[in-house]
Each structure stands twice: as C-alpha cells, then as structure tokens.
C-alpha cells in the first residue's frame, strides 16, 4: 500500500496509457473491443464514451469505497455496489448528454448502454481498490486507462481495415487474425515497460 | 437443441463460447499464466454461469422486461460474491493471486449471454445445464492456453517440474501477448477443423 502512495500521478498517467494498458496488459474490455473495432467511427465514439465513463466512475467508486463501505465494514459488498454505481452513472450521463447536446448524444448515446457491461470499467475500479490509490491517483488512473483503451481500439480498427481486405487462411479470418493482431500490439506496448511501470 | 447431450455438444464444440463467439475472454485470459489459477477461475465461471442461468430462468416471469438487465447483473453479482468469499476463506493465496479478476466474472459476457439467449426462454434445470456446459467449453479452451503458457514459461504443469532444469523458459509465455497468440492459434485450429467437418457433411 505504501509503495503505491509514492507513484506520482504523472507517471501513473502515462503508465496506464501505455505499459499497463488496461486492454493489452490486463485483457479488460475485450468483448466490445473485438466486435466494435470493425468500424472506425464507432470505435472512436466508444473510445470517447469509455474514457468519460471510466474517469467519472473511478472517482465515484473511490468516494463510495472510502466514505461508505470501509467505515461500515461492508467491503464484501463492493462488487454489487460498484456495478450499481457504474450502471447509475452511465444512465445519468446518458440523460445529461441528451439534454446538453443532441449531436453528442447521437454519436455517443448508442454506446453508453454497452459500457455498463464493459469489463474495463469494473476492472479499473477493482484495481483502484486493490492498489489502494488516493483520490487524485484514482482519477488519473481512470482517465489514463480510458485514453489507453481509446488509443488501442483506434489502432486496431485502422489495422483491421487492411486485414479485412487481405487474403487470409479461411480458418483464421475474422476473430482469429484479430486476436493475433492484438497480440502484436500488446508486444509493442509492453516493450515500453522498461521506462514506466505501475504494477 | 433441447436434449441435454445436444446442448453439451453445442456448447463445447459447435458454438463454443470462446472460439466460435469470442465472448468472455476479458476476465479469464489474464490468469492463464498458471494452470492452477485457470482451473479455479474457470470453475468459478462455470459455477456462476450455471447457477445464474438457473435463477434467471426460475424468476423470468417475475422480472419486468425493462429492468431485466440490471436484475440479471445483480443475480450474477450475488453468485460472484459467494465465489469470492469462498476463495478468501479456503484458498487465501489463490484469492490474492487472482486479485480483481474474480470480481470481473460479473462482467463476463458469457454469463449474461447465456442468461439472455437461453435461460430467458427455457425451464430452470436445462438452463443450469446449458450454463454449466458453456462453462466447460470455456474451461477447455483456457486450460489449453494455460497448459502451453505454464509449460513453456515455467517448465511446469500444475506446479510440478516436468521439463529438465536445462530447459530455458520462454519469457514471452509469461507476458500478456502470448495469451493472445495462443488464443488466435486455437481459434484458427478450431475453425479449420470445423470448416472441414462442414465441407464433409
């Protein structure tokens, strides 16, 4: 716990985008990652939505954990509480965006329901709890993980534009080649781990 | 479709959740570095899938359609908390090794997928069987990945040294990318065999 307190928010931010990328190093958020990355425009929308939701929910869950669950000794309820607070935050965000900007709602709104069951969102909250981050660290970690996820899905959808048109062995078409591509991306991202690491 | 053995074959082979649908790999791929972790993790997933399918099917007439997603999530979360508490009590080391990934069983798409696709429209017992067999199909693929990763990454199988001491461990097998490569290869092999079967039939 004491070790994590020392990580300065700046390096935590970059580490969570690149070397500890929530998707490529922790395998979280894969389901929507593989299905949505077929289309670049949707990938961009979903990436933005994930980034916003991650930052907001990690902050909210930090507050709930430290001001409600720990004082009341109810930590074993954290899974249920986190998932409810994520669902509620997503619902509220949907309503706010609907009010504030119709254009943003049209581009982002359809992705919001998908996000409640995105493993990355719950995953970041659980990592935040296990590593004992402070409030600032949690916000930075949430934002960085979201940006990292966004970057990864944009890169993958750009690569898939090429691979979808290439000649590939029949058994490897579709998900097969996509998963192997993700493997190469993961190697590239993790190659930076000599510079920064948070784990 | 409705007989138990047909469901078994379908869930383990012809529509295996992983290599046919690429679902639910989020929460479990991360723990495939060791066979023992994978075993416990996939047993947990199987347990949760079977029981939550059973419960969803039992309660399907009571749940209003509009809120069914959140109710299903709560049912799943309930069983995941049971798994988490059992692990903490009886296998504390394993619980620490799995870290946040036990909680992430909640967002495993397979569980929600089976609840939506099967348990919503079938009686409880057969739904539980459908959930359990989906879990087995999932377990089979992940154990295969974990076997290769542990054997080549550490030279062991379930923690027992099998390769001679002179064997140089493959660092790549310990790092995340290898899980993606192995999964890709398994999907490739599975689909190729299936295409052949399809051509022969």
Description:
The complex is a heterodimer of chains A (199) and B (201). Chain A has 199 residues and is an all-alpha fold. In chain A, 72% of the residues lie in helices and 0% in strands. Chain A contains ten helices and no strands. In chain A, helix 4 (40-69) packs across helix 5 (78-100) and helix 4 packs antiparallel against helix 9 (135-163). Chain B has a domain at 4-142. In chain B, helix 7 (124-154) crosses helix 9. In chain B, strand 1 and strand 2 form a beta hairpin. Chain B has helices at residues 4-14, 26-29, 35-59, 68-90, 92-98, 109-117, 124-154, 171-174, 176-200, and strands at 156-157, 160-161. With 201 residues, chain B is an all-alpha fold. The relative contact order of chain B is 0.18. Chain A binds chain B through residues 24-31, 34, 76-80, 82-84, 87, 116-123, 126-127, 129-130, 169-172, 175-177, 179-180, 182-184, 186-187, 190, and chain B through 19, 22-27, 29-30, 69-70, 73-74, 77-78, 80-81, 84-85, 99-100, 103-104, 106-109, 112, 175-181, 183-185, 187-192, 195.
Structure classification of chain A: mainly alpha
Q: Pick out the low-confidence regions of chain B.
A: none
Q: Helix and strand succession of chain A?
A: HHHHHHHHHH
What is the H/E order of chain B? Answer: HHHHHHHEEHH
Instruction: Say what oligomer this is.
Output: heterodimer
Residues in β-strands, percent of chain A: under 5%
- Rg measurement of chain B, Å: 18 Å
* 3D shape of chain B: globular
Number of domains of chain A: 1
Average pLDDT number of chain A: 83
Q: In DSSP terms, counting alpha (H) and pi (I) runs of 4 or more, how many helices of chain B?
A: 9
List keywords for this structure.
heterodimer; A: 199 residues; mainly alpha; 72% helix; 0% strand; B: 201 residues; 69% helix; globular
């Amino acid at each position: 716990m004491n070790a994590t307190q020392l990580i300065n928010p700046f390096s935590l931010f970059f580490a969570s985008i690149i070397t500890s990328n929530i998707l490529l190093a922790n395998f979280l958020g894969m389901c929507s990652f593989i299905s949505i990355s077929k289309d670049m425009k949707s990938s961009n929308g979903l990436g933005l939505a994930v980034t916003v939701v991650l930052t907001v929910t990690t902050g909210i869950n930090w507050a709930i954990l430290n001001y409600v669950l720990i004082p009341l000794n109810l930590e074993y309820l954290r899974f249920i509480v986190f998932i409810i607070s994520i669902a509620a935050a997503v619902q509220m965000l949907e309503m706010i965006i609907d009010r504030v900007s119709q254009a943003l709602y049209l581009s982002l709104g359809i992705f919001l329901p998908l996000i409640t069951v995105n493993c990355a969102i719950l995953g970041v909250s659980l990592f935040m709890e296990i590593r004992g981050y402070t409030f600032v660290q949690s916000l930075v970690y949430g934002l960085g993980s979201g940006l990292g996820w966004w970057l990864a899905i944009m890169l993958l959808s750009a690569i898939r534009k090429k691979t979808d048109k290439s000649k590939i062995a029949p058994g490897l078409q579709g998900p097969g080649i996509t998963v192997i591509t993700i493997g190469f991306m993961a190697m590239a991202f993790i190659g930076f781990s000599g510079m920064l690491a948070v784990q | 479709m409705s007989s138990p053995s047909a469901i078994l074959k379908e869930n383990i082979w012809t529509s295996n959740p992983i290599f046919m649908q690429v679902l639910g790999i989020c929460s479990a791929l991360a723990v495939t570095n060791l066979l023992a972790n994978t075993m416990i993790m996939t047993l947990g997933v199987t347990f949760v899938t079977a029981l939550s399918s059973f419960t969803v099917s039992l309660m399907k007439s009571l749940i209003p359609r509009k809120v069914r997603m959140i109710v299903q999530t709560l049912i799943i979360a309930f069983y995941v908390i049971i798994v988490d508490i059992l692990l903490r009590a009886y296998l504390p080391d394993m619980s620490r090794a799995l870290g946040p990934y036990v909680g992430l069983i909640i967002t495993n798409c397979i569980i929600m997928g089976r609840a939506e696709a099967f348990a919503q429209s079938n009686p409880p017992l057969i739904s539980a069987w459908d959930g359990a067999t989906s879990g087995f199909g999932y377990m089979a693929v992940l154990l295969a990945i974990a076997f290769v990763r542990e054997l080549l990454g550490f030279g062991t199988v379930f923690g027992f040294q099998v390769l001679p001491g002179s064997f140089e461990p493959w660092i790549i097998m310990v790092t995340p990318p290898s899980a993606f490569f192995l999964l890709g290869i398994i999907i490739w092999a599975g689909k190729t065999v299936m295409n052949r079967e399809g051509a022969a039939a």
